[in-house]
Amino acid sequence: MLRCHGRKSEVLLNAARLRHVRKYNKDVAVLSKEIRDDYELEESRRRQRKTDWKRRQRGQTFLDHLTMTVQAGKGGDGCVAFHREKFVAYGPPSGGNGGRGADVFIVPTPHLTTLSSVPKHVRGLAGGHGRGSWMNGRNAQPTIIKVPLGTVVREVKTDDSSRAFDTYGLDEDQLKGLTLSERVKKMRERRWVHYPDAEDDNLQRDAFKEAEKILYRQEREKRAELRSRKRSLLNLDLDREYNSSSDHPSYISQPGYLVATGGTGGIGNPAFITTDNRSPKFATRGTDGERVTLSLELKILADVGLVGFPNAGKSTLLRALTGGRAKTEVADYEFTTLNPVVGVVRIGVDGGLLEGGDEGGRVIEDTKIEEERFAGMMERGELAEALTRNQLPPTEASAGGSSSFMTMHNLQEEFRFTIADNPGLISQASENVGLGHSFLRSIERSLALVYVVDLSGPSPEQELRILRDELEKYKPGLSAKARMVIANKADLLGGGVEAGEEKARQKLQRLERFVEKEMRSVHAVQKSAAVERTVKDAGVVLEVGKVLDVVAISAKFSENLRKPLQLLRRYVGEARCLRNPEI
Ligand SMILES: Nc1nc2c(ncn2[C@@H]2O[C@H](COP(=O)(O)OP(=O)(O)OP(=O)(O)O)[C@@H](O)[C@H]2O)c(=O)[nH]1
Ligand SMILES: [Mg+2]
Questions:
Q1: Which one has a higher pLDDT value, 74 or 238?
Q2: Of 330, 372, 433, 466, which is best to mutate to test ligand 1, by the most ligand atoms within 8 angstroms of its C-beta?
Q3: Predicted TM-score of the model (pTM)
Q4: Domain assignment present for 318
Q5: Where are the transmembrane segments (predicted)?
Q6: Angstrom distance (rounded) from CA 146 to CA 105
Q7: Ligand nearest to the CA of 559
Q8: For burial by CB atoms within 10 Å, which of 181, 191, 342, 517 has the most?
């Protein structure tokens, strides 16, 4: 029997027990209350540790710029071999050729939201070496780099200092500082394979000298061609998923966008047979794969960006507006959201949300609670009998205004826009406090910004002022893009229904007065050139002195979402029209 040393290990052990029971699909109710409490305790500690870790990372977990070097696979070496068989003492040369090195491809995927998982150095697999009995080496499997959708890939210019050596540059660098004989030796080592103990003899032979001359000539020609050809630098805007058939002619089947070509395989010794030399004892090695330096930039494009303090309810709002489809985490601790997450909001002809209710009736719980509820349903087998979306009878689905799949498709979509949930912004974020503010780069391109403040908090006005100042510190003029203040958690102003309503009204009025008085100042500084440029880039219709709209809602209970929805629709519509008058 396991013995626990102290309370801490007992808690850990109990948490492990409950996890074990869950894992094997048993009912956790069989466990004692003490064990279940310990599990909860350990879970909350785990979450705390996670939050602390995130704070320590200071936003480094979100990466939207990256320079990477890509080296395609080296070709396999050719083989020097002679055929051996019973009664054939000296068979013909039988070395196989080397296989091709791996090509490197880039594929955009919607499953990633940051560049932090993309490696800084990528090296393709080498091709297989040729073998005796005319066996050629295997071509290497292509190497695939997955990047988030919205990534722009550019090849770094030749004169840029961040660019690594290309294939030939690397070759020359390795020969630097060597004497002539050492250089020749090194170059030969990199290019030739010799039969055991035959190297000295080979070097004296005319056949070898001739082959070497041809090889160098070919190499020089190739290099001159590469350098003189004004090869257009790679520039890919990966804003949609890769589709092999539409991105390339049908006869080329590629797993993604080619960024570096693999090296060619070496040539086996049978290729060097001449009339004078019937048994060549040398073969060539495979060539190095192409080397490129790429600069990756992640551009998250969302029409609307949410800006708010940690825990203000930005993620809850995004989930409410997307009918729970946006995969962003909701939890009651700060800095839950680490990376910007984009969701699509769909508006029907009646001006309401196609997915999710905008007039209450839907509760957006913390993701952990939802997960637990789902796990519980799984454990109890309740999901086994559940009808799939396609099995739902249409009458049932369309009755009572339910937001099921059927209803969604029966209703017509009239307008859609994207909205980005961002990590929390706090005071001094510009000095890298909290998660910093590097993520703001992704909302610079938004058409409109929306402040989300916690109405139940002590001072929503103060929050608003800090948010505006942080935006301005990041980029002067950026706060001019803000169009609305969402006062969230209005349901929390308690003290009885009527008292709560009265309190909410007063707080809201105070907030409105503040916005009217203070938030105009942003427009007042419009004269500066930087501000004007930002405003112009944004394509936002700014009426000078216009006060921001203030709307009180409850994202968690989907209360009063209709009004902000209509306003958002108007802002996005106006901004799109301004950018593209034909729409
Ligand atoms: N009562 C109530 N709780 C809410 C409301 N909106 C959000 N919450 C709760 O507030 C907590 C924080 O919500 P999140 O949506 O994770 O907040 P966030 O702004 O995304 O926080 P970070 O990701 O840390 O920046 C969660 O426990 C939510 O359930 C609301 O309208 N009413
Ligand atoms: Mg969040």
A1: 74
A2: 330
A3: 0.61
A4: yes
A5: none
A6: 9
A7: 1
A8: 342
